[in-house]
Design a protein that fits this description.
alpha/beta; 3 domains; three-stranded antiparallel beta sheet; 5 helices
Length: about 170
């Protein structure tokens, strides 16, 4: 979007300001009686987003009701990973929020690429793996062991081989 800041509803009165220095309270320029949260705009160099389907040109169907399209539009480069590569995606296709190829730098066919989260119609969330991740994230030693088991020195194929049996159970 290219804006330097953006108003954010819903954070006034929370403790978010104790942990973040990229947000302030400011008067609404259109209503002097209202104070709102203003956040520094995020403009990532690269966004990697997972889609249900994409075509080779970069048009894609992302998850519904998320912020993915907005993140893509704010990013300098966008890589789409997709469950399926199909011949053509159009804004009229159903099954997700459409993103135009004009916002996309590259497309990568990545079945099960959202693991451990799920993709509607493809596979469910892997609750067991998410619980393992949460437990590992409680201290540095446990998290390092998790990374060594699943990430460090592993290829995507090796990772998928470790988790595919649970992941490929059909989504309900």
């Amino acid at each position: 979007m290219g804006v330097p800041y953006i108003p954010v509803r819903g954070l006034a009165g929370t403790d978010v300001f104790e942990r973040r220095d990229d947000m302030i309270m400011a008067k609404n320029p259109f209503d002097a009686d209202e104070v709102t949260v203003v956040a520094v705009a995020q403009n990532p160099d690269v966004a990697i987003l997972h889609a249900r389907k994409a075509d080779k040109d970069g048009n894609a169907l992302l998850r519904r009701h998320g912020e993915d399209v907005m993140i893509a539009q704010a990013s300098k480069r966008v890589i789409i990973t997709a469950e399926e590569i199909v011949d053509r995606i159009t804004p009229d296709d159903i099954g997700g929020d459409y993103i135009s190829a004009i916002n996309v730098t590259a497309v990568v066919h990545t079945p099960c690429g959202a693991h451990p989260t799920g993709v509607d119609g493809y596979y469910d969330m892997d609750r067991e793996h998410i619980e393992e991740y949460i437990a590992a994230s409680t201290d540095d030693k446990s998290f390092r062991a998790y990374l060594e088991r699943y990430v460090i020195g592993k290829t995507e194929a090796e990772y998928q081989a470790m988790v595919t049996e649970r992941v490929l159970e059909p989504a309900r």
